[in-house]
Amino acid sequence: MNRLRNLAFVLAFSLLTVADCSTGTQPQMTEATSTSQSGEDNAERNLVALKNTTLPPNPCDAVSCSHGCDVNDDGGAHCTCPVGKELDVDEKTCKDIPIKCPAGYKPNAARSGCVDIDECQQQPPVCGHSCVNTPGSYRCGCPDGYRLHPNGIHCIDINECRINNGGCSDTCYNTPGSFNCKCPRGFQLMAGGKICEQKYKCLGFGCAHNCHQAEVWYEPYCTCNLGYKLAANKKDCVDMNECGFFHRCDTSSGATCVNVVGSYKCVCNEPNKVLSADKLKCELKAQVTCASLGCSNGCDDTRYPPVCTCPNGYRLDTNGRDCSDVDECAEQTHGCTDTCINTAGDYRCECPAGKRLSNDLKTCVSLSHVACPMPTLFRGSVNCTSTSYNPGTICTRSCRTGFALSGPPSIRCQDNGVWTPDIPAQCTDIDECANNNGGCEQTCINFLGQHACACQSGFLLRTDRKHCKDAENPEFTNCPSNIEVNTQLSYATVTWPEVTYTDNVGVVNVVGPQTNEQNFTIGVHKVKITIFDAEGNSALCSFKVHVKDLELPVVSNCPDDINRFVLEGVMVKEVTWPEPTFSDNSGSVTVTDNIPTDNLFPMGEYNVRYQAADPSGNIAVCTFLVNLTRVNCPDLRQPVNGSITCDTSAINPFCEAKCDAGFEFLKSPPEQYVCGADGGWIPTDNVPDCHRTFTPTAAKATFSARYAHVCKDPENDPVFIKQTIMPMFQSQHVQSLQFACINKPCTFTDPVITCREKDTLLTFSSNEDLSGGLDLNAYVNGVLAEVQKQRYDSFFLTLIIPGTPEFFFPPIADLENRKIDVQLSLTCADGQVQIRNKCVKCPPGEPDCPLIQPGLA
């Protein structure tokens, strides 16, 4: 409230001052002055007095300015305008001050100056791709691989292949916004994607097993070792499952094929069979048993076939049955320090006077130390109370299983170093077969320290090694052969001979038909009869019964041949007919036909065939022709020394003309003569004759190399290049061309060096006489292929021209300048003209001869 009152006071003071100034009188400030002294009540009274005061008129009220007004010193007034505007002719209204901006600029908001126009923000866009605003203007941009159209708006593709061939060493293909380099057959792009190099051969090709070189323009190929085959990537080798399609295992003998990595093996699954010597078929195990071996000592029947065994100290004789003592003393395996005495199945060490054996029974020690010798027991063991065998030591004797102790069971060491009782002991064999047949079901065989059970022929030991099981399969003494009978109606009653069989124990179960007479329907049936003995051994008798149906199906309503005519230009036509019907004594037939889709038949004859087959394979056929005809073309004339071959099965029949071997056309005929719908041949019915061909008399291969060096010394540089390049070229490349020049070495003319404005051209030729029988195809293919392979010649990278500080080779961008090009021309004998790579003798008056000139091959 105080601020409001102070503001009112100031405003009142200002108005009074203006009023007094205008009248020239001194304002009365008594009350106003007291306002500041007497507070709020005086201020309110002064405002009331101010309202009652009469003010003079404002001069601007009479001017009527559109914007602003200023009072003149003489009491008048004039109109004013804000920045950017000026008074109009009426001196009252303000108008915009005209501003002229340069192109690409516009007045600013205050119209006090010019600002840039951002054309890139305009719609529609001023550029076809990208826009960059610049002061007073703009510019359009394009992505990589494109350039600005002359209209300055749109972007067009840059054909990089037209600029230095895109940097490609061979073929350049332009693409929108880019380009691709391609290589000829047998070559591939290097890492930069522009230079072609010969494809790697076997080195680094990645074959898992074997790699084979191909021609220069073909990739190598891989092969695998025996037992493997190529994987899908044609490089790796995977195991071949020979059992799936090829093996030599004799399955009829019971042999089964088992695949292993890189090979296969045959195995026998029947327990009574083993593999033959060639490992391909199964044979019955030989009935070798411990009983049949006649072992003198022991037998090991835990493996097949069983083998004879010997106790320690003995070895098996060469006859495989008897055991011979091992003379450890003679074989120096005893370890005695003094004397060795051989004994049956063992040996002992002895000492001279004054010495005795130590406890190891091998070392002799002085008698000053009293101790008994270490006791031993052949085929047994001795347990003592002391290992030093001092007087008072007690030892207990025991035999191993299968032997019984003969002699005192224990001995004691006396003070004089002698065992008491001084009675020898030994372990003798126990005859287990004497007690309850050794627990064997059939045969018991005793050996030293052991015994074994054996079985009679046709039996094998069970896993308990005591009891026997039947191992012999039953056997059919009569199994019927295959039977063929004709059907009576839809079946036949078949009787076969009685099936008989035998077994060493007896057959307990028969699985199969219970009688030897049964009814069989039409077809092939397999009869199986299986017999089992009590052990589960089995035998199978099987034979086939073929009930033959000799009656053919019957066809009815087979249509006659159908002839239709079609309008010219019609390629196919729908043809229909009543379908034939088929029946058969078997009740069912399978009908097939060769009718086109939707019954749309092409021009010409079409042999429609219905075929009905019964389950026995008897066939009935219904055939008829559907013939669509129109106007035919006349026969073409056969060329002399040539032939015409035609294909009349097509909708539009066509013919091709060709020459016999050793003859050629002077003027090539059309690739095909097509029979038109109007009966005329397209493009012509004129067939030229063929003329004998001859081998060219000579061939000339002209090589040219262009590189980016400019001769700095036109007199001496060509001489230096000629003396340097040809020897280097011949040493590096001519030798590899010799396979093309069959009868003699390739010969080359002296090089010609031409100094040109921007580069240097080197040319030389190889002239070959073909009259000596040189193979023209080998020569042409050899020269072209060799130049293709070696087109980047290393000598271009190593030449140094005298007087020049830099190496004599162009920058990477000019790699194509180091390419060697070759042109091959052939020469024909007088009176002959060149047709492709052959020469043809011009017959007199032949109009086509003057039109054909010798050219490049």
TrEMBL record:
Q: Name one GO molecular function term.
A: calcium ion binding
Pfam families given for it?
cEGF (PF12662), EGF_CA (PF07645), FXa_inhibition (PF14670), HYR (PF02494), Sushi (PF00084)
Give all residue intervals belonging to the Sushi domain: 370-429, 631-692
Q: In this protein, which residues make up the domain named HYR?
A: 469-547, 548-630
Quote the PROSITE patterns the UniProt record gives. ASX_HYDROXYL, EGF_2, EGF_3, EGF_CA, HYR, SUSHI
Keyword annotations of the record:
Disulfide bond, EGF-like domain, Repeat, Signal, Sushi
Q: Where is the EGF-like domain?
A: 116-156, 157-197, 239-283
From the UniProt annotation, give the residues forming the signal peptide: 1-21
The record's SMART domains line, in alphabetical order, gives: CCP, EGF, EGF_CA
- The answer to whether the entry has keyword Repeat is yes
Disulfide-bond pairs as recorded: 249-266
Name of the protein:
Fibrillin-3 isoform X1
Q: Which organism is it from?
A: Lingula anatina
Classification of source organism: Eukaryota, Metazoa, Spiralia, Lophotrochozoa, Brachiopoda
